[in-house]
Write a structure and sequence with these properties.
alpha+beta; four-stranded mixed beta sheet; 60s Ribosomal Protein L30, Chain: A; thiamine-phosphate kinase activity; 13 strands; binds adenosine-5'-diphosphate; seven-stranded mixed beta sheet; Phosphoribosyl-aminoimidazole Synthetase, Chain A, domain 2; 2 domains; Thiamine-monophosphate kinase; binds magnesium ion; 25% strand
Length: 321
C-alpha cells in the first residue's frame, strides 16, 4: 500500500467532521476558524518506540495514548480540544497494526469531539507525533505561574498506577490478574481530564498535568509562581490495586516521582475550594487536597504524617544518564 492509499483508507473521510473545519485532509494545509473571542492553544507530544512504549504495546492503546497525552496538555490549560494533526513514521505498512492503531485514535478523537485535520506519513523507526489544538476564551488560560500563598493544592485522581504497570513488567513484580488489568488500563488508556480542565477555568490559579511525576511537575508550578509548597504524601490518592501490591514504604517513588498517569494538579484559593470541589464532583472527578502553597522561591517539602519524607529521585528527563 502506498502513502496516499494509506491516508485515504485510514484518515480521510474517517472520524468526526466539525463545522469549524473549513478544509480538512487533502490539501497542503488544513483551514480552521477560531471563534473571535478565543485564543488558540497548541501543544505537541511525540511517542517514540522503545522510549515511551514497549514495541509490543497493543496498537489500539498506542492510538489512544498518543492523543490522550496531548489532550491532557490542553486540559491543563483549561482549553477545549478541537483539532489535531498527526505525524506518523512507520517502519513498514502493517495493515492489522494500522487498523487497530487508527481505531484507538479515532475512538478517543470522537469521544472528545476532536477532528484529525492533517498530518504527515513517512517511513522510518516507529514514531508518532500529535499536534493538538484547542480553543480558550481570551485571557482565561490556566498557566503554571499563577499559584498564590495560601492556595490549596489538589490532584484529580490516583497517582502511581501507570508507573507500577511499567515497573511490574520490567522487574517482574507479582500482580494479581485483576490488579494487572486495572494498572495496565491506566497506562494503556489514560483519561485526559478534559472536562475538569475547563471547570478549573476562572477558579483555579494554576494547573499542570502530571506527566513526569508529582514532584517534578509541581516543581514547575513552584518555580514559575515563585512560591513554596508542602505536600502531605498520605493525602495523595492511590488506587486499591497499588495499595494491594506495594506496602506503604515502597509506594513513594511510584506515587510521587514517576508520572504517566495524566492527572491534573491545580491550586485554588481558600474561598473557591469547596465550590470547585463540588463542581468537579458533578463531572465525576473526586479531587483530593494534598497540600498548600507557602511563601518562598520554589521549594517543596513532602511530609508523611507530619514527618519529613526524603524526596524520591526526579521525574523522567530525556538526555540524562
Ligand atoms: P504535503 O506533501 O503537501 O505535505 P502530504 O502528501 O504529506 O502533503 O499529505 C496529503 C494530505 O494528507 C495532507 O492534507 C496531509 O495533512 C494529510 N495527511 C498525511 N498524512 C497524514 C496522517 N498520518 N494523518 C492525517 N492526515 C495526513
Ligand atoms: Mg504540500
Amino acid at each position: 500500500m502506498k502513502e496516499f492509499e494509506l491516508i485515504n483508507r485510514y484518515f480521510k473521510g474517517r472520524g468526526i467532521t466539525r463545522r469549524d473545519v473549513d478544509l480538512g485532509i487533502g490539501d497542503d494545509c488544513a483551514l480552521v476558524s477560531v471563534p473571535e473571542n478565543c485564543q488558540l492553544a497548541v501543544t505537541t507530544d511525540t511517542l517514540v518506540s522503545g522510549v515511551h512504549f514497549f514495541a509490543d504495546i497493543p496498537p489500539r492503546a498506542l492510538g489512544h495514548r498518543v492523543l490522550a497525552v496531548n489532550l491532557s496538555d490542553l486540559a491543563a490549560m483549561g482549553a477545549e480540544p478541537t483539532w489535531v494533526s498527526l505525524a506518523l513514521t512507520l517502519p513498514d505498512v502493517d495493515l492489522p497494526w494500522l487498523e487497530a492503531f487508527t481505531d484507538g485514535l479515532h475512538e478517543i478523537a470522537e469521544y472528545y469531539n476532536v477532528q484529525i485535520i492533517g498530518g504527515d506519513t513517512t517511513q522510518g523507526p516507529l514514531t508518532i507525533t500529535v499536534c493538538a489544538k484547542g480553543i480558550i476564551p481570551k485571557g482565561k488560560a490556566l498557566t503554571r505561574g499563577g499559584a498564590k500563598v495560601g492556595d490549596w493544592i489538589f490532584v484529580t485522581g490516583p497517582l502511581g498506577d501507570a508507573a507500577l504497570a511499567i515497573e511490574a513488567r520490567k522487574r517482574g513484580i507479582a500482580l494479581t490478574p485483576e490488579n494487572k488489568k486495572a494498572l495496565e488500563q491506566r497506562f494503556f488508556y489514560p483519561t485526559p481530564r478534559v472536562a475538569a480542565g475547563q471547570v478549573l477555568r476562572g477558579m483555579a490559579t494554576a494547573a499542570i498535568d502530571i506527566s513526569d511525576g508529582l514532584v517534578a511537575d509541581i516543581g514547575h508550578v513552584l518555580r514559575q509562581s515563585r512560591v513554596n509548597a508542602v505536600i502531605h504524601a498520605d493525602k495523595v490518592p492511590v488506587s486499591q490495586a497499588l495499595k494491594d501490591t506495594l506496602p506503604e514504604a515502597e509506594r513513594w517513588p511510584y506515587v510521587l516521582a514517576y508520572g504517566d498517569d495524566y492527572e491534573l494538579l491545580f491550586t485554588v484559593p481558600d474561598a473557591q475550594k469547596s465550590a470547585l470541589q463540588a463542581k468537579l464532583k458533578q463531572y465525576g472527578v473526586d479531587a483530593a487536597c494534598i497540600g498548600q502553597i507557602l511563601p518562598g522561591e520554589g521549594k517543596l517539602e513532602v511530609l508523611l504524617r507530619g514527618q519529613k519524607l526524603a524526596l524520591p529521585a526526579k521525574g523522567y528527563e530525556h538526555f540524562t544518564a
